[in-house]
Amino acid sequence: MSDDCDILGPLGFSIQILLGVFSFFILIYKRIVEKPKRQWKVWGLDTSKQGCSQVFAHFLNVALAIHLSGDSDECVWYLATLLLDTTIGVLFSYVILKLVELALEHFQMANYRSGNYFLIIMPDDQVKKNEMNNKDKVPAGTNLIKPIIKIDLKAWFIQLILWILVVSISKFFLFLLQLVIGFILESISQFILSPFSDLATFKLIIVMCIIPVFMNGLQFWIQDNFLKKTEFTIQEKKYVLSEMYVDEELTNFARLDNFVNNPEVKSDHCLDKLQMEMANVGVGVQQITKGYQKADFE
């Protein structure tokens, strides 16, 4: 094992902690600029899955780098593993996650799809009956049958386990790929690090901090887009949106509902009209309409 790049040394460990902090701030920035904005509690549930899986993946990357490096430079193999993980690995994770979610739907467990954290508890028939019998005592306009909305931590935990499983399967396929094209990855990494071959400390900072900040940041940003909830049932649109997004962002969905449900504005060009309608609130049509079925626009 080479002594010029010790990724498990005190400096390497300190840099890894710094990397984790930077990566966390990237996700905070994404939440600040996103539209519509998730509630912080929803954002926390989404990003915590990435945080846990990233710690798991990071130590796997370190172990693989040490295993694959042999007597060569650990930094070279860590960089090779990182580049593969943050590019092809993201694609693998996305495909595997979608396959898992298809399986969940097949077994009628769609409530464990990524981003589904809320339980909608509808009042039982007796409660409904009692409320309706007392309707004269309730101010006009009051929702007499209001469901209870609560966070389902069990669903979040199962999603966390499933996501770590997805990452593990992805890492397994990446490991097999490294065994096949490892010499190519090693050559690319050596070329990138060649200007710093005589600067062991700086090379360690490059490999463990500077490059990962950009590559992991891109990875986190993309993965957050397919880990958060983007599709809603009719019931969820009615009861869950206010729990998921900050209040001022709900107007975006309300304006969309008004557009979809207003027969006067429906036409063959409804998507074009929708784009004009939503342009005033700065929300992308593809993002905001993803949860609607095609029939809603016909």
From TrEMBL:
Protein name (database record): Vaculolar membrane protein
Keywords: Membrane, Transmembrane, Transmembrane helix
Any one annotated GO CC term: membrane
Source organism phylogeny: Eukaryota, Sar, Alveolata, Ciliophora, Intramacronucleata
InterPro entries: STIMATE/YPL162C
Segments passing through the bilayer: 12-30, 76-97, 160-184, 204-222
